[in-house]
C-alpha cells in the first residue's frame, strides 16, 4: 500500500484495490478512475464522480456594525461556499429583501457570491440586516447592524441686523448632529476667518458664534 497524510492506497489479499481518505478536502472532489496495466494490456474502471456534501460557510468575515452618514453609499460583500453551492438571501428584520425595496442586490447563485448595496443612505435604512446562506445540508446567518446618521440641523435661523458703523454684532446658531457638525461662516459666499480685534469665531459644543467688532461698511452683506 501507499499513503499520504490525507489518504491511503490499499491492495487487499484477495486482489481488491482501495483508496481510503482519512481527511477529505475540497480539492479531492472530482472524477476518479482506476487504471490497471501489465505487460500486455490495460484495463480501466468506470469513472466515479465524487461530489462533496458541505453545509454553507462564509469565506469572508462580515462586519457586525456599520455606520454611515446620510447620503452615503453602502456596499456589503458576502462570500460563501458549500456543496451544493449555497443560496444567498438578504433580510431586514426577518423580511426577505429584493431590488424592489430600493436596494441593489446582486447574487451569483453559481458561486455563492453576493453584493448588497444601499445607493443613498437615509435614516430609514437604519436597522438589523442579515445575510443568509443555505443548502440542503445547513444554514448559516450573519447579522449586520446598520446605522445611518441623520443630517445636521440648526435650531434657529439667523435674523437680519440693521446697525451703525462702529457697533458690534453677534450671530449665534446651534447645530445638532451625530457627530457634532463643524460650523463654517460665510460673508457674501466667501468663507470668514478670525481677525484680531474685528472677527471672533467661537465654537462651544453645538453652539457656534460669530462676533463682528467695530463694524464697517465693508462688513455689510449676507452672512450664513
Descriptors:
3 domains; mainly beta; Ig-like domain-containing protein; Immunoglobulin-like; five-stranded mixed β-sheet; 224 residues
Describe the secondary-structure layout.
Blueprint: E1 2-3, E2 7-11, E3 17-21, E4 30-32, E5 35-37, E6 42-44, E7 48-50, E8 54-58, E9 65-69, E10 74-83, E11 87-92, E12 95-96, E13 104-108, E14 113-118, E15 127-135, E16 138-149, E17 153-154, E18 169-176, E19 186-187, E20 190-191, E21 199-204, E22 207-212
Task: Walk me through this protein's architecture.
0% of the residues lie in helices and 49% in strands. The protein is mainly β. It folds into 3 domains: 2-52, no CATH class; 55-149, Immunoglobulins (Immunoglobulin-like); 153-219, Immunoglobulin-like. It has strands spanning 2-3, 7-11, 17-21, 30-32, 35-37, 42-44, 48-50, 54-58, 65-69, 74-83, 87-92, 95-96, 104-108, 113-118, 127-135, 138-149, 153-154, 169-176, 186-187, 190-191, 199-204, 207-212. The mean pLDDT is 88. It has no helices and 22 strands. The strands form 7 sheets. Strands 9-16-15-11-12 form a 5-stranded mixed beta sheet, with no helix packed on it. Strands 8-10-14-13 form a 4-stranded antiparallel beta sheet, with no helix packed on it. Strands 17-18-22-21 form a 4-stranded antiparallel beta sheet, with no helix packed on it. Pfam families: I-set. GO terms for molecular function: axon guidance receptor activity. This is Ig-like domain-containing protein.
